[in-house]
C-alpha cells in the first residue's frame, strides 16, 4: 500500500511538473509574441508620424524661402536620415539578440529544474 501511494505521489508530481513546464513555455511564447507586436506597432507609428510632418514642413519651406537655403537644407536632411536608419538597424539587431538570450536563459533554467527534480526522486 505504501509503495502504491508513493508511486502515485511520484506520478502526480511528475505530471504537475510537466504541466508547469508547459505553462511556462506557453507563457514565454506569448510574452515574446506580445513584445514583437508592441515593437512593430511602435515602429510603424513613429515612422508614419515623422514622414507626414517632414513632408508638410518641406512644402511650406519651399514656398516661403530662397533657393540657396533650400539646397543646403536638403543635403543636411539626407545625412541625418542615413544616420537614423543605421541606428534603427543596430537597435533591431540588439533587440533580437536580447530576445534570443532571454529565451535561451529560460530554457536552461527549466532544464536545470527538471534535472534537479529527477535527482531528488532517484
UniProtKB/TrEMBL annotation:
Q: Where is this region: Disordered?
A: 44-90
Which protein is depicted? Uncharacterized protein
Amino acid at each position: 500500500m505504501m509503495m502504491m501511494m508513493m508511486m502515485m505521489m511520484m506520478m502526480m508530481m511528475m505530471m504537475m511538473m510537466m504541466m508547469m513546464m508547459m505553462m511556462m513555455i506557453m507563457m514565454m511564447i506569448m510574452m515574446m509574441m506580445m513584445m514583437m507586436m508592441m515593437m512593430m506597432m511602435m515602429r510603424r507609428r513613429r515612422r508614419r508620424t515623422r514622414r507626414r510632418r517632414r513632408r508638410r514642413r518641406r512644402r511650406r519651406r519651399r514656398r516661403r524661402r530662397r533657393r540657396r537655403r533650400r539646397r543646403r537644407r536638403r543635403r543636411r536632411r539626407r545625412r541625418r536620415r542615413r544616420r537614423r536608419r543605421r541606428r534603427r538597424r543596430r537597435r533591431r539587431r540588439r533587440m533580437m539578440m536580447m530576445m534570443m538570450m532571454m529565451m535561451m536563459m529560460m530554457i536552461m533554467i527549466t532544464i536545470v529544474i527538471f534535472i534537479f527534480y529527477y535527482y531528488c526522486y532517484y
